[in-house]
Amino acid sequence: MRVGVITFPGTLDDRDAARAVNVGGAEAVALWHADADLKNVDAVILPGGFSYGDYLRCGAISRFAPVMNLVIEAAGKGMPVLGICNGFQVLCESHLLPGALTRNSDLHFLCRDQEIEITNTTTAWTSSYSAGEKIVIPLKNGEGSFQCDDETLAQLEGEGRVIARYVGENPNGSRNLIAGISNARGNVVGLMPHPEHAIDTLTGPSAQGLGFFTSILNAMVK
Amino acid sequence: MAKIVVDVMLKPEILDPQGNAVASALPRLGFTFATSVRQGKRFEIEVEGNPTPAQLAEVEKAAEVLLSNPVIENYVVRVEQ
Question: Fewer Cβ within 10 Å of end Cβ, chain A: N or C?
Fold first, then answer.
């Protein structure tokens, strides 16, 4: 199975994301923001970084990149899409996911190992985990505070679409400790911390992030 | 030449950590007037001559689609001579 990893100008984590895809057992395929071609991939990852320098708002310019029109169309047809950090911001700006990511409540750029709890294991990207499983993966962002209106929050909670929550003290002011959410169908997932940096204990705090990249194989086998 | 100005502000219910940081810096400098500070963005857009209603409508659309994120922000479009 082929998993596309998009590189925008300013993307940082495309190499790690591609490596995580390969270690997970799928084939990573490099996609370029300016190409209107998804190269027959079965799923897409929008990696972290500072696409277009975070100008205007994080993810705001990337949302209009040629490749994103295809991603939005494919996501609507059920293709699994995972947005990590800046990728999550792009998915919100694209309206594939509700809400927005705003400046961390204490204004600091955070870079640390963060414990999160996986709260939904039915999505295309979380099925390798068990419900309530706690994992430690890096969190590194300046604008990771998930915000939405009360109605949207009630809907996300009511439909079980919060896929991961921060454990312990709220790191950034996110509503209800939200670290990640999915769309109603469960094929589109956004996550603020970085599972692709935690697939090998040589370089990461754990190998517990790998589950996101093996889950996608389960989704395809079904 | 007329200037079209688009002011973008976080919605009142959205936490503004930058505004709060400014608000807490003011009294440290002896400025004690502020009870609250909100920080926003201002876009200055130049067009040839006076903007037409059609151009203003286009700017409104651009403000909605690109310049602001309606989930967290409000915007106001106005013309400055």
Answer: C
- Give me the domain span that covers residue A140: 2-221
Write out the residues of chain A at the interface with chain B, using a CB-CB cutoff of 8 A. Answer: 56-57, 60, 64, 92-93, 98-100, 102-107, 145, 147-149, 173
* Count of the separate structural domains present in chain A: 1
Least Cα separation, residue B12 to chain A (angstroms): 12
Residue ranges of domains in chain B, CATH in brackets: 3-80 (3.30.1280.10)
Q: What is the ipTM of this complex?
A: 0.83
Catalytic (active site) residue A196: yes
Residues of A in contact with B66 (CB under 8 A): 56, 60, 64
What rounded mean pLDDT belongs to chain B?
Answer: 94
Q: Which amino acid is at A74?
A: A
For residue range A188-218, what is the model confidence (pLDDT) as tens digits?
999 999 999 999 999 999 999 999 999 999 8
Q: Is A108 among the catalytic positions?
A: no
Kindly report the CATH number assigned to the domain that includes residue A201: 3.40.50.880
| A-B contacts at Cβ under 8 angstroms | 36
What average pLDDT is seen over chain A? 96
Whether residue A92 lies in the annotated active site: no
